[in-house]
Amino acid sequence: MTTTLTPLEQETNPWMAQAARFDIAAHKLNLDEGLWKILRSPNRELTVYIPVAMDDGHLEVFTGYRVQHSIARGPAKGGIRYAPDVTLDEVRALASWMTWKCAVVNIPFGGGKGGVICDPKKMSMSELERMTRRYTAELVEFIGPEKDVPAPDVNTNEQVMAWIMDTYSMHMRQTVTAVVTGKPLNMGGSKGRREATGRGVMVVCDEALKKLNLSRESTRVIIQGFGNVGSNAARLMHESGYKIIGIGEWDGGLYNKNGIDIEALWEHRYRNGSIHGFKGAERAETAELLVTDCDILIPAATENVITSKNADKVKAKILAEGANGPTTATADEILADKHVFVIPDILANAGGVTTSYFEWVQDRQGYFWKESVVNEQLDHIMRSSFEDVVRYAETHNVNNRIAAYMLAIDRVAYTIRQRGIYA
């Protein structure tokens, strides 16, 4: 029985969304048919079924995935997410985005991604640990410092990475810190890693302001999502002089046209476990915040929040994608007609994988850098990459997203040609 997708389902299917952008960029590059076929499909997809003894004694079987999209430029690199709505198409799309993201910032990784269909909010720590260790054991032949290096993603964190590293190390009969990134500092993690994606978002926003002759102090920012990426971007941008006027979460948001005191909100969230009840802003609907008047809009949570249904109402001058895939391909066309300056996800949120690369390098060297060095290196790579993408866009007369894809595909294709895949 075949399932016919509705137009909106087609628009929001992440694999179709990335394929649409890839095809446009590959066509503009005049990419030859053979390379087109190679780069359009993942190298390898693994589905595993993970039996876990639950706390009440019954056995549950979880479905997990790991997709390696490309290893042409180095080991696959990409996060692992735990969520009830994880799909293979989503993991495929995220793995391909990682390939392009690593190529945009020119670091020696390919793209990978993993996910397990589960609801971590309904699981105990011991159940999560057992599931993580069993999932890792199923992947042990496919991951490793020279093969595929996982990292945290949605609903995974430093603790999950510690379990993965320990399980992998048990199988290798030696401590292997470089098998994952995003680890606790005392287990080979890197200073600056936790804030890196948010810091990278701020750096590219800084560059966009220069490009558009705007100043931080007069720039109003709305951020959708107050998780790792959104909260760190908000905190760093607030410290730098930006006026954060809106914060949206999955269950509602906050708005203050005069600016929100992010340090006070950070402390409120730490004390109460939620942004709600904060006295320094009024309650607002997150869907409304996405279309509220501002200078910079930063979607920093999940995919498909800007679609054909709301893109025409977006009032921001700059859209900086802190999340992966927050804008659909159809919405892209609408935003282009409105002359919104889009900083695409494969550039805007690449600070995380860039600092993960630094962590991997430090683990392999056994020598760890000062946080100032990590931030300085990140700053340099993000600024250079922004410049590369904007120059590519202007040279080829395309928007920033297609320019980023073209730049990335060009770099990966060049490596494949040099390696001699046709020999």
Structure overview:
- It contains 15 helices and twelve strands.
- α2 (14-28) packs across α15 and α4 crosses α15 (400-419).
- The protein has helices at residues 7-12, 14-28, 33-40, 88-104, 125-139, 158-172, 196-212, 228-239, 262-272, 286-289, 329-337, 345-348, 351-365, 371-396, 400-419, and strands spanning 44-53, 59-70, 76-83, 110-117, 148-152, 220-224, 243-249, 252-255, 282-284, 296-299, 318-320, 341-343.
- The chain is 46% helix and 17% strand.
- The longest helix has 26 residues, at 371-396.
- β3, α4 (88-104) and β4 form a beta-alpha-beta unit.
- The chain is globular.
- The model has no long low-confidence stretch (mean pLDDT 95).
- The chain has a seven-stranded mixed β-sheet. The protein has a five-stranded mixed β-sheet with strand order 1-2-4-3-5.
- It has 423 residues and is of the alpha/beta class.
Gist of the model:
The protein is 46% helix and 17% strand.
Descriptive key words:
423 residues; alpha/beta; five-stranded mixed sheet; 15 helices; 12 strands; 17% strand
Task: Give the secondary structure arrangement, pairings included.
Layout: H1 7-12, H2 14-28, H3 33-40, E1 44-53, E2 59-70, E3 76-83, H4 88-104, E4 110-117, H5 125-139, E5 148-152, H6 158-172, H7 196-212, E6 220-224, H8 228-239, E7 243-249, E8 252-255, H9 262-272, E9 282-284, H10 286-289, E10 296-299, E11 318-320, H11 329-337, E12 341-343, H12 345-348, H13 351-365, H14 371-396, H15 400-419
Task: Determine Rg (CA atoms, Å).
Answer: 21 Å
Strand order of the largest sheet: 9-8-7-6-10-11-12
Parts with pLDDT < 50 across at least 5 consecutive residues: none
State the major sheet. Answer: 7 strands, mixed
What overall form do the CA principal axes indicate?
Answer: globular
Helicity level, as a percent range?
Answer: 40-55%
Q: How many helices in DSSP terms? A: 15
Order of SSEs, N→C?
HHHEEEHEHEHHEHEEHEHEEHEHHHH
Share in β-strands: 15-25%
Q: Say how many strands there are.
A: 12
What does the average pLDDT come to? 95
Q: Give the class from helix and strand content and strand pairing.
A: alpha/beta
CA-CA gap between termini:
41 Å
